[in-house]
Specification:
12 strands; Rossmann fold; Ubiquitin-like (UB roll); three-stranded mixed beta sheet; alpha/beta; six-stranded mixed beta sheet
């Protein structure tokens, strides 16, 4: 029996529908790959998600220019290609910086927040005045001794650990005692001595048990004496 035109047309449509059905998974896979490629291009290479600005926040003495120069983030760099850990390391290398956080703020911004070291004492080293933080880090050179900060005297032979011990003690002192402190002498890390502005002396020992030593000293200072020894806080002594 000969096929009518309608029958032939239906057969042709069914044949193409069958082919399309078989091709659907392939076409879908190609569409997914194309979408993924486009998304990758947008994220990694296009200007749609590129760095257009870098912001700097946080109370500090460092200028934005110094921080941005250290961060060294190229404008136009795709955000996802930025190595945030490397930016963190570069900014952290600045002496006054204690902590840094760096994050992407989509779609075009990198945000840097800086926390600076807080000075707790002054020290004269290598012909210059410096301020140190609670970890004993010399982080800013000054034109002279900064008013209001106690002085730390450390032997030139003493290592960084001695300076760290001295700074730890000063940072733990209550404000009323800091204002009465003239200087802290540290010939070694376990023989710290505080000298008050009225001339009285406090033999502190090491930075161990500093909180207990502060409590004991606050009671001892009510007694008339020239020397106060709190190096062993459970057995404090005084002497004229």
């Amino acid at each position: 029996m000969a096929r009518t035109p309608d029958t032939a047309s239906k057969f042709s449509r069914r044949r193409w529908q069958g082919r399309f059905t078989r091709l659907q998974p392939i076409l879908l896979a190609l569409a997914v790959l194309a979408a993924a490629a486009f998304a990758g291009w947008v994220v990694l290479s296009s200007s749609w998600l590129a760095t257009e600005q870098v912001t700097v926040a946080g109370e500090r003495t460092l200028s934005d220019q110094k921080i941005l120069a250290a961060a060294d983030i190229g404008i136009g760099t795709p955000l996802l290609r930025l190595d945030l850990d490397a930016v963190d390391e570069r900014v952290s290398a600045l002496r006054p910086v204690a902590e840094v956080t760096v994050h992407r703020s989509w779609p075009h911004t990198v945000a840097i927040t800086v926390t600076e070291r807080v000075p707790v004492a002054a020290i004269y080293r290598v012909g210059s005045w410096w301020v140190i933080d609670n970890e004993g880090v010399l982080f800013r050179r000054t034109h002279g001794r900064v008013a209001g900060l106690p002085l730390v005297r450390v032997s030139h032979r003493a290592g960084p650990s001695t300076l760290r011990e001295a700074a730890t003690v000063i940072a733990a002192l209550p404000p009323d005692l800091v204002t009465r402190l003239r200087h802290l002498t540290a010939p070694s890390m376990d023989s710290l001595t505080l000298t008050l502005k009225d001339g009285r002396e406090v033999r502190w020992g090491s930075a161990a048990q500093t909180d207990q030593k502060v409590q004991v000293l606050s009671v001892l200072l009510a007694r008339q004496a020239q020397v106060y020894d709190v190096s062993v806080p459970a057995q404090p002594t005084t002497a004229d």
